[in-house]
């Protein structure tokens, strides 16, 4: 296992995923991690945002909420390389902008993954600066009448999407 400390090929920030990329199958299809990959993922939330389904698509977009107490649950992944990040940028496309935002972790993270201060492990409740792909396309593209449901995505769309989307085949 390799060290997760910052190196020229390791991205300095973890990435918060709140949609289809919460699925390991989707994430690994996009980033194609090699056998040397040293990744860790933990449940996390971001505050002040809401996620809605993209019209006629199985994935969501996340936008700022007028209610700053709202949260979106997701997965925070540590250890991606710069090439992984490039692949993620390509996958997300022009309607999503990668921003650095605070994300609260819900499981401990070993010190080796704390690339901002690798001397201490991250604890439950710690807030870390993270890459987040925020939806910046026209809000009319999102179905704001209902929240996006990850479990429904996994149950109803994941297998079909993985087998038919040009992103994965």
From TrEMBL:
Assigned keywords, A-Z: Transferase
Q: Which residues form the signal peptide?
A: none
**Record-annotated Gamma-glutamylcyclotransferase AIG2-like domain positions:** 15-135
Which InterPro entries would you find in this protein's record?
AIG2-like (IPR045038), AIG2-like_dom (IPR009288), GGCT-like (IPR013024), GGCT-like_sf (IPR036568)
Q: Which residue windows are coiled coil? A: none
Q: Which domain of life is it from?
A: Eukaryota
Q: Which GO terms describe its molecular function?
A: transferase activity
Transferase keyword on record: yes
Q: Which family does it belong to?
A: Belongs to the gamma-glutamylcyclotransferase family.
Matching PANTHER family: AIG2-LIKE PROTEIN D
Name of this chain's protein: Putative gamma-glutamylcyclotransferase
* Organism (species): Linnemannia exigua
């Amino acid at each position: 296992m390799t060290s997760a400390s910052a190196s020229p090929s390791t991205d300095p920030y973890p990435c918060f995923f709140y949609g289809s990329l919460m699925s390991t199958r989707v994430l690994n299809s996009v980033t194609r991690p090699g056998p040397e990959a040293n990744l860790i993922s933990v449940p996390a939330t971001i505050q002040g945002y809401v996620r809605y389904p993209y019209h006629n698509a199985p994935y969501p977009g996340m936008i700022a909420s007028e209610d700053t107490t709202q949260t979106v649950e997701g997965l925070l992944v540590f250890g991606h390389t710069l090439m992984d990040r490039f692949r993620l940028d390509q996958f997300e496309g022009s309607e999503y902008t990668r921003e650095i935002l605070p994300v609260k972790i819900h499981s401990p993270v070993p010190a080796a993954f704390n690339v901002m201060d690798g001397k201490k492990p991250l604890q439950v409740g710690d807030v870390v600066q993270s890459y987040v792909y925020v939806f910046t396309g026209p809000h009319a593209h999102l179905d704001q009448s209902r929240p996006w449901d990850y479990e429904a995505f996994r149950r109803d769309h994941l297998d079909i999407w993985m087998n038919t989307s040009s992103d994965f085949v």
